[in-house]
Design goal:
It comes from Chroogloeocystis siderophila 5.2 s.c.1. The protein is mainly β. The protein is 13% helix and 43% strand. The strands form 9 sheets. It has a 9-stranded mixed β-sheet with strand order 4-5-6-7-3-2-1-9-8. It is elongated, with a radius of gyration of 30 Å.
């Protein structure tokens, strides 16, 4: 073969090899980074291969969401835990971030110089943080067993426990020979022992008991030092201003410290390295300020708001309702009826909501709604007493105002009979309207009701209700019931065989154009001005004056929604209605509405309550849920 031909073939071969190599480097997910960033297609994104709801820490199993993903790089399998699990079970501190794909954390590391940055991704209602590199660096052993993620850590030892006084409260320092998982949890309130000689009630609130659980073994000298008689120690702690270690219990690689904390103080835990320390500060202002972009359109904020001499710890979510893939819906704890209550954390998780806040008022005894609920254009329960409500559509537009539903029964003879309530637990004289959204049956709420059965727009029966709670009347699928209360003359206007139809309208009229409505009250702000008038919305004077934990919802000038929880002021009780209005004003709200408060106040995000322990949260009837579109 001529030399020129050989040279030409060699040149072509080298060119093909070079081109193929270059193309492979650009397409391969394992290629080294080049000077230009490479775009990774959707089908190269992490792929979910396993998930579960239990995490075993050194053989101790606790509830926590986890997942494993196949990475599109040579790092292979990634293990992730929900941010709630990292905080509550491992003691990892989440730092501020503006990047929804990254989360900086602090765990026995210098907060300003050696934080860890974890990849973040969302699946259904959870935000998962990739702990793979963190686990490798710290020597954790990870494996899965069905629904359980098992994590084993090198043995750790508690070397000392030190207590000291600071200007703001007590400090407890726990010295460790290496980083260890820890949890801080509140326990049910302990009753304060009453002296037999006491003749008056002591208004001093009882101490709160907290448990600090550490995956470490306490040295024997510490066990001897902190092993007091529990009743004596408890009495001593409650009768003094000191915060004491009540009891220290230790097993191999597990230590529990019991604290009795005076009312108004809460633990603020943190960790430090070199040497490794878990620091528990007991303070009246224990809330940690945060600003975390939790998901596209959901920002988690915690901050102190000052009004005069009072400082309020405020926990809130700022939601951009115009974000693609975000949906806001009224939610209810009841299924197939309007009767029922549950903690908002339970309802949110059952419905796969990413975030939620408790909603409007309800009757705790019979678990029935006392305010407006409208979802996807359908009234579930009507408003009462001209109380405040929020309405919105799927385009992210909101309306706040005092709301009435004006409903009328029109008979074939031309009679127009006003309806006073729709699917409501609120009782007043007149005609109450119940559809099968209420449930399969209706049971009279007061004595001597007359139940009118309507099917296919025709009255088919009249049934004496008798005593409250005794008679059960089926609600027809092709009609509804009318409960006649305290006005027997209405029965003669609705004889069997009469044809009827219903008309309804809202006041203000434009509320009717919104598919979603949630009632509360009282209305706090309109056009940036405080419009609070609790008596005009049927609230008692005592309710108006009360200071308590508050839930509130508002919209800013930019159109973002703020859902807010405020439980107390530093060294004091919760805000008044005027104060919660001013807090919402301070946060930048143009319009705002008070929601059911007190023990109902609960703000949920990604598997956790942000504002309180689930142990103390009451059961509620309804709320507002924020949903992320499903992702795989």
């Amino acid at each position: 073969m001529p030399r020129q031909v050989l040279f030409l073939l060699l040149t072509i071969t080298l060119w093909l090899i070079s081109t193929t190599s270059s193309a492979a480097q650009q397409l391969s997910p394992y290629a080294k980074p080049s000077a230009k960033p490479l775009l990774i297609s959707q089908n190269s994104a992490p792929r979910l291969v396993a998930k579960g709801t239990q995490i075993a820490l050194n053989s101790r199993t606790l509830p926590g969401a986890w997942s494993q993903w196949q990475q599109p790089t040579k790092s292979g399998m990634a293990t992730a835990i929900s941010d709630a699990g990292l905080m509550q079970l491992l003691g990892v501190e989440l730092l501020n971030t503006k990047d929804v794909t990254k989360q900086s954390v602090q765990w026995f590391s210098e907060p300003k110089t050696s934080t860890f940055t974890l990849d973040a991704w969302h699946h259904n209602s959870y935000r998962y943080l990739n702990i793979t590199q963190l686990a490798t660096k710290l020597g954790w052993q990870i494996q899965t067993n069905g629904n359980t993620l098992q994590i084993k850590t090198p043995p750790a030892t508690i070397k000392d426990i030190r207590q000291g006084k600071q200007v703001w409260g007590d400090r407890i320092v726990i010295d460790l020979d290496r980083p260890a998982f820890w949890q801080v949890t509140s326990q049910p309130l302990l009753a304060k022992p009453k002296s037999p000689s006491s003749t008056t009630d002591d208004d001093q609130p009882p101490n709160q008991e907290w448990l600090i659980t550490i995956d470490a073994t306490a040295q024997r000298s510490l066990l001897q030092r902190f092993r007091p008689s529990l009743p004596e120690q408890l009495t001593s702690a409650q009768d003094s201003d000191q915060t004491s270690v009540l009891q220290l219990e230790s097993a191999p690689n597990l230590t529990t410290i019991r604290l009795s904390v005076p009312a108004g103080l809460s633990p603020r835990p943190s960790t430090l390295p070199n040497p490794n320390r878990l620091v528990i500060d007991l303070r009246p202002d224990a809330m940690v300020e945060r600003d975390i972009q939790w998901a596209s359109g959901i920002r988690w904020r915690q901050q102190f708001v000052t009004l005069g001499d009072s400082h309020f710890p405020v926990v809130l979510l700022e939601v951009n309702p115009r974000t693609t893939g975000l949906a806001l819906k009224p939610i209810s704890s009841a299924t197939n009826s309007l009767t029922g209550t549950a903690p908002i954390i339970t309802t949110a998780q059952q419905l796969n909501a990413a975030a939620a806040i408790n909603g409007g008022f309800f009757n705790r005894k019979n678990q029935l709604p006392l305010g407006a609920i409208r979802r996807d254009g359908q009234w579930l329960s009507g408003p009462i007493l001209n109380r405040g409500a929020i309405a919105w559509n799927d385009a992210g537009k909101f309306k706040f105002g005092r709301l009435q539903l004006q409903e009328t029964i029109v008979t074939s003879s031309g009679q127009r009979l006003p309806v006073v309530t729709f699917n409501s637990g609120y009782v007043k004289p007149g005609i109450a309207h119940y559809t099968n959204t209420w449930g399969a049956t209706y049971t009279p709420l007061i004595d001597n009701e007359t139940i009118v059965v309507v099917q296919n727009n025709q009255v088919t029966r009249q049934i004496p209700g008798g005593a409250a709670g005794e008679t059960t009347v089926p609600i027809p699928a092709n009609g509804f019931l009318l409960a006649l209360r305290a006005n027997p003359q209405f029965a003669s206007l609705l004889p069997i065989g009469a044809t009827v139809r219903t008309e309804n309208a809202t006041s203000p009229a434009d509320f009717a154009s919104y598919p979603h409505i949630l009632g509360g009250g009282p209305l706090l702000l309109q056009n940036r001005q405080i419009v609070l008038n609790a008596q005009a919305e049927g609230f008692s004077e005592a309710f108006s004056r009360q200071k308590a934990a508050r839930s509130a919802i508002g919209v800013t000038a930019t159109g973002n929604l703020l859902i807010t929880a405020v439980h107390n002021r530093v060294n004091g009780i919760g805000p008044s209605l005027t104060e919660i209005a001013r807090i919402m004003q301070h946060l930048g709200c143009v319009d705002a509405l008070n929601l059911d408060g007190g023990s109902s106040t609960s703000l949920f995000l990604g598997g956790q309550l942000l504002d309180r322990s689930p142990r103390t949260a009451a059961r509620v009837h309804n709320g507002l849920g924020i949903f992320l579109e499903p992702r795989t």
